[in-house]
Specification:
Blueprint lengths: L3 E4 L2 E4 L12 E3 L5 E3 L3 E2 L8 H14 L3 E3 L7 H13 L7 E3 L10
Parallel strand pairs: 5-6, 6-7
Antiparallel strand pairs: 1-2, 3-4
Helix pairs in contact: 1-2
Amino acid sequence: RSCFGFEGGSYQCCAAPPPLPAAGRQTTLPNGVGMPSMLLGTGATTWMDEAKTEAAVRKALLAGFSGIDTANHYRNHRGVARGIAAARAAGHRADVWLQTKIEGCGNSV
């Protein structure tokens, strides 16, 4: 089965998901910039755990994800950065959309 996510206490990366139709791969923002339609969320299962975050980000990028979502209050930015670097070292060459949230803007705990 195709899967990606937290299962049995560790990240499992199986076959990459089937590619999305060309029109569904990104959303065009009002300023003309293209944003991926689907991003890996790093909050729920990697909260404050740099090693899990690094592994999840690396596997997601190598499996075909092009966007990563994080937030300052997840305390995992180092793991995200290391995961991107590890994916690059393993051959990932596409651009990465990195989305984060800033505390105090009505979106944080």
